């Protein structure tokens, strides 16, 4: 799954990779991004064909759902295209969530040890996501997950769906709505580009947020 991640790459580097227009302001580095907060994402608004770096609420609940409906932070690749709860967003409201890495917990001797997973070349990651207007009128999103691959398998059974550079544009293409077509055009980042290391249990507390969060511990 993906329940905590870090994003500390600057706005210009993210914008350049997707050829986004530069805007005023900057992204504040976050080393412990938790669910139920505003996160940075790339999406197209319904009334615009232009891509935008935007703020989405990390918690998905479609506008037609009632107040008791779930607010998942993740959607599995196995069900996102067919589940009535997600399929509309998968077809028409896909987004990208930039990250520099994410956290997973490995049980060792009865204790959960957090690990930080990231690219070995220090380039940003792009998580595949879906979004939908929530009942309160604000946009909410979920990050797609898939079975863990490569070194990530040693830490957790699932991982975020990370797209390679060539898949970013097709994933955000509003003309692509068919599941099989999307599967043919979109590919995940090769697993041999990932690495990980154990980090402090401070990450367990969402209020903790500083560069030391991603430093290796023995």
UniProtKB/TrEMBL annotation:
Q: Which InterPro entries match?
A: SRAP (IPR003738), SRAP-like (IPR036590)
GO function terms (MF aspect): lyase activity; peptidase activity; single-stranded DNA binding
Parts forming coiled coils: none
User: Mind listing the UniProt keywords for this protein, alphabetically?
Assistant: Covalent protein-DNA linkage, DNA damage, DNA-binding, Hydrolase, Lyase, Protease
> A GO BP term, please?
proteolysis
Instruction: Please tell me whether the keyword DNA-binding is annotated for this protein.
Output: yes
Give the Enzyme Commission number. 3.4.-.-
UniProt similarity note: Belongs to the SOS response-associated peptidase family.
What this protein is called in its record is: Abasic site processing protein
> What organism does the UniProt record list as the source?
Halomonas lysinitropha
């Amino acid at each position: 799954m993906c329940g905590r991640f870090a994003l500390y790459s600057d706005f210009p580097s993210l914008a350049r990779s997707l050829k986004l227009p530069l805007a005023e302001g900057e992204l504040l580095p976050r080393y412990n991004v938790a669910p139920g907060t505003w996160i940075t994402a790339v999406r197209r608004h319904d009334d615009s064909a232009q891509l935008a770096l935007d703020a989405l609420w990390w918690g998905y609940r479609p506008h037609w759902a009632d107040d008791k409906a779930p607010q998942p932070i993740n959607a599995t690749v196995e069900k996102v295209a067919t589940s009535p709860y997600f399929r509309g967003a998968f077809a028409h409201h896909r987004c990208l969530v930039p990250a520099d890495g994410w956290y997973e917990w490995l049980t060792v001797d009865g204790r959960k040890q957090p690990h930080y997973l990231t690219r070995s070349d220090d380039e940003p990651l792009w998580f595949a996501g879906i979004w939908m207007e929530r009942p309160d009128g604000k946009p909410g999103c979920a990050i797609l997950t898939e079975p863990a691959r490569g070194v990530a398998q040693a830490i957790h059974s699932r991982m975020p769906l990370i797209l390679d550079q060539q898949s970013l544009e097709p994933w955000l293409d509003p003309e692509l709505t068919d599941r099989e077509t999307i599967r043919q055009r979109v590919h995940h980042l090769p697993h041999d580009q990932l690495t990980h290391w154990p980090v402090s249990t401070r990450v367990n507390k969402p209020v903790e947020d500083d560069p030391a969060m991603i430093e290796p511990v023995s």
